[in-house]
Amino acid sequence: MNRLKSKVATGATLVKQGEWSQVGRKVEKNISALTEPFREGLGLLRDAYVYRRWQNHTNSRGHAGSPVQQLQQAAAPGGSARQKNVIWIMLDALRADIFDDYVQRGGMKSLTENGVYFTQAFAQGSWTYPSVFSFLTGRYPFNCGVTQLAREDGLYVSVCADFDESCPTIFSLLRREGYQIGSILDGWGFTIRNTAGQEHREDRYFEENWGWRYGQNRRFMTLKEQRDATLDFISQVKTDAPFMLFMRSLYTHSPYRGIFKSPEYVTALSRRRWRFRIVEGFIRGLAQFEEVYLQPLLAQLQQLGQLENTMIILCSDHGDMFWNVENDLRADAAALSDEEVWRHQLEPYNALVKVPLLVAGAGLQGVYNERFRLLDLLPTILDELQIPYDAGAFDGVSLKQRAKRPLYADSAGYGNGGIAFQDRGPKLLMSHRLGAAAYELSADDYETADGRRDGHDTVPEFAAFLQQHSRHPQTTIIEPGGDGADPPTEEALLRRLKALGYI
């Protein structure tokens, strides 16, 4: 009662003094507090209705048809005769199922109408470090240095290591063709130093080789800042030469700033199992991304006469956990607390390695339904740009090539991380927590504890794959006692990495 009297007295004083702007702000603040429960309730009803409608649509739909039937050759672009520009946008930690929901509702039309939508795209890492270096080099993580593999007790595990600078990257390959190179790397220093533990890696390497111009010493740039940096780069490039811009955005990365009220709000939704509210929040977030970032970008390209002459790639580097990674993992207090809704430096589950992928302005249009890996993008880009290359330099295979695309992904971190492998049979997951576990599942399924079976009989299949594809078998794969040193226990590997300055 006393608080109410105080508020009335304050309001009366402001009215007498003619401070109408302050009066308006206080009235708005108090009305907002009073109506918050009603607005929350209306939002709840709206999200439940829309999500139910989407669920019914999802159950009756499918991406039917073979790639040969659905992909078509696009019409010749009407842009300039010079080489196409490349803009590669990576929305960090965006789940494939949420992006697919958005596309099915009509989102990203400006890209899907002139592009290829990949419904079964997979990353080669369950978090940023192994995934990004893999797809920017077109090589498996263990072949570009960021992952080191160890064999212990008959199983393979992965551990974080340092990028091999001798590997070709999309930046170095296009720079040789006369491309102007630029990068917007939101939170990149944090990823390299704090998360991957590469303290000795100076930013100068990424500035000189990746054209890192924007985002130094920043984390969670706003969409407007990312847009302004993108438009600024495009406005500064020379008009007589093509450009390549790589943009890594943390807009969709936990704790989802700009999409939800707060991390605690999303935690509360997940604890209640209100999946529909998380989905709907992200749908609105993606609509905001289109409005604030993508549409101005397309408008500037159109104004410069370069829209028809630009290839735009939109993807994520990995997914996020949310609500549907194995129930026993959520219940394991040592691995994950009930307070945590997100984490992706975990086992390479489908929820974490299946990613959204959309390529517009290339030579093909339609829907691609077969397995495609992010490391296949680099040779695909070179093919579409008609740049000759040595196919043997990459582990990835161009979209234009009909080939087997075995799935490999790992979760290498400070200690031993899990490894995922799948060719034509069940998916194999190896880690200290799981041992060797095989999962009979489709690309759209998520791993569950009741779907596990012993996977030791599939380890030789993975060993054969590794023997076939490893480029540095003597230095990449650590065999127990093979060099007279400590066996590759987790502690021994950590000692080695510390001695090398990796962590």
Description:
- This protein has helices at 2-17, 20-60, 67-70, 96-104, 109-112, 128-137, 170-176, 188-195, 203-209, 223-236, 263-271, 275-303, 327-331, 350-353, 377-384, 459-469, 473-476, 490-500, and strands spanning 72-73, 85-91, 115-122, 147-152, 155-160, 180-185, 212-214, 243-249, 310-315, 354-360, 364-368, 372-373, 407-410, 419-422, 427-431, 435-439, 452-454, 477-478.
- By secondary structure, the protein is α/β, with parallel strands linked by helices.
- The strands form three sheets. Strands 1, 2, 3, 6, 7, 8, 9, 10, 11 and 12 form a ten-stranded mixed sheet that branches. A five-stranded antiparallel sheet has the order 13-14-15-16-17, with no helix packed on it.
- A hairpin with a 3-residue loop joins strand 15 (427-431) and strand 16 (435-439).
- Residues 54-69, 75-80, 474-489 and 495-503 have low confidence and may be disordered.
Summarize the structure.
The chain is α/β, with parallel strands linked by helices. 40% of the residues lie in helices and 17% in strands.
